[in-house]
Amino acid sequence: MLARSNRVKTLAPLMEEPTAQPYDDEDSAKKYSPWGGLRDWLRNRSVANTGWLMYSNGRGSAGNCPDLKLLLGVLGCPLGPIGVANDPLPHLSIKDVPIETSSAQYIVQQYMAATGCLKFQNSIKSSYMVGRVKMVSTEAEMATKACRNYSLKASETGCFVLWQMMPDMWSVELVLGGSKVHAGSNGKIVWRHTPWLGSHAAKGRPRPLRRALQGLDPRTTAIMFANARCLGEKKIGDEDCFILKVAADPSTLHERSDGPAEIIRHVLFGYFSQKTGLLVYLEDSHLTRIEATGIDVVYWETTIETTINNYRAVDGVMIAHSGRSVVSLFKFGECSMSHTRTRMEETWTIDDVVFNVPGLSMDFFIPPADIIKNGSGGDACNYQSDGKPLSRKLRNGNLQQVPVGRSKCGD
Q1: Model-wide pTM > 0.85
Q2: Domain spans of the chain, in order of start
């Protein structure tokens, strides 16, 4: 081996970084800029030098717990670096192809065979997965202080439900510490709804949910790495792995940049076991430069490292049923004394997987009503009279819709 859409003009883009304080009324949330919220978050963190990673009795909603919003904002529903919508499953091609690319294609073919993901193209049209999560802020480091470890015995626990319809529609609902994040894609746009920001659309081409790449959707994972480069080999735990790299190109990064925030880099590394062919480790790095009035130029680097394990066959498809993610959120600037680093962890398990969900249709992936009203297409048949989305649940093998406020994971 080698050595190592539619654009929503009046809505702010989906944020993949910390967000600001919540708003009591919907109008204020709509006027709010996520990047302005990041500025507020930075200022608040500078003032609160002591104890800001501690929870109030380990509980509370995102409205009064900054760390819970940080956990949900960073770990709740991050996206992959590039879009895969409508792309076919990759084929092996070695003619006039660099050896880094042809090697990666061969590894992806082995992954497809190991997971049985061809079933996603031939017989599986939709899927439903429900699981549990545990999130915690574990550590903070500031330039003026030594690294401080926080033993948070009362970590936040929650659950999530992921719906998918091939080839490119998905919806995820995640409940943690009394707050709920809901995100999805109808194949044309990606959006996210949080209690403190309301609904926001992502800029650029639709991208898949990173959580789905963590061993839950072999088809999307294979397409994501279809044009990857093979960087070599590395041992992860007891597994000898091949390393594949995929990165967003400059034009994609430019599309995703917004106002004072410039996306500089978004890279994803996949580690595929040489023994089983399965994806066992996922690492991505996201770097943003922010220059706004009233603050110095700062950089945010978010690194997420995920260990994927406990693969089990579900109707002939290998699905990972547990894993652990470790996040490093690093802020630095031109001044060497201005850096901060926050570390977070998430453990997750899958409780149930269902393929070819009865009654699931395109209507279940319609974006929220306020995004629809601003020209994103679709209709509002999936929403209550107050504009709030309906939640989907499987009951006795059939799909039903209930108001989102009544939704409980695994119910």
Answers
A1: no
A2: 26-406
